[in-house]
Amino acid sequence: MAIFYRGSGIGTYWHLNDPIESGFAARAPGMTPTITRLMLHIARSTVNSPFISITRSYAVAWRYAMSSSVRVPTVNGPAYVHEIEIQEPLPKSLELLDPVKEVANTLPSPTSIGPPYQHDGFPDFLLGIVDPSNMGHFLEQHSMQPPSSEGTPRTPNLTIELETLVRALRDAEILAYGNIPASSVKNRFEVYY
C-alpha cells in the first residue's frame, strides 16, 4: 500500500466535486499518454492531459491547495488535501508513472549530437526552475563562456526534459493514468492559514 496526496484549492473542480464519492479522473482521459504530453503536463502545467498529478508529500499538496484557491482558505472556508491510498495490485484501469524515470529513459547519451538536457548555467540556475515566481532572475543570467570565447551572450540551456525532471522532483510527483477509484480516496483534510 502507498499513500499519496492531492491538493484541491477553493473554487477548483475537485474542491467543488467530492472525489471521495466519485474518485479522481483526468481532464482529458481519451488522449494518448505520450512522453511529450507527460512533460507538458508537468513542465507547462497543461491540464488537458490524460494524467492526474498526485504527490508523496502532504506539504506539496497543502501548498497547491493554498496557491490554487480563488480566495484565502480560512477555518470557515477551507481548501482540501485528499489522502489517496493505492493498494497493489493496481486496479486494471490504473497505471502509476514516475515521471523522473519516464523522462530519464528518453534522454540521449552524453556524447550525442544536439542539445543536451543539462543546463550550462551557474548552479543556482536550478533555483529559477524550482521557483520561477520568486527566483526567476536566476533563469535570466547569462551563460558564462570561456575567456577566449567571443560567443553571443545568452541565457543557459533549458530544455523541457530538464524542467520536467526538476519540477517532478520538487513536487514529489507521481502521475496516474486512468481513474483513481473513490474507494482509494480515504480522507479529506481541511486546510487553511
In N-to-C order, the SSE pattern is EHHHEHEEHHHHEE
* Radius of gyration, whole Å: 19 Å
Taking the alpha carbons of the first and last residues, their distance comes to 31 Å
Put simply, the count of helices is 8
Percent strand: 15-25%
Shape summary = globular
SS content category: alpha+beta
Name the helicity range. 25-40%
Please, what is the average pLDDT?
96
Task: Describe the protein's architecture and organization.
- With 193 residues, the protein is of the alpha+beta class.
- The protein is built from eight helices and six strands; from the N terminus they run E-H-H-H-E-H-E-E-H-H-H-H-E-E.
- Helix content is 28%, strand content 19%.
- It has a three-stranded antiparallel beta sheet. Strands 2-5-4 form a three-stranded antiparallel beta sheet.
- Helix 3 packs across helix 8.
- It is globular.
- The protein starts with a strand and ends with a strand.
Quick structural gist:
It contains eight helices and six strands, in the order βαααβαββααααββ. It is α+β, with helices and mostly antiparallel strands and 193 residues long.
Describe the protein's topology.
Blueprint: E1 2-8, H1 13-16, H2 19-22, H3 35-43, E2 51-55, H4 58-67, E3 79-86, E4 94-97, H5 99-104, H6 125-130, H7 132-135, H8 160-170, E5 173-178, E6 185-191
Antiparallel strand pairs: 1-3, 2-5, 3-6, 4-5
Helix pairs in contact: 3-8
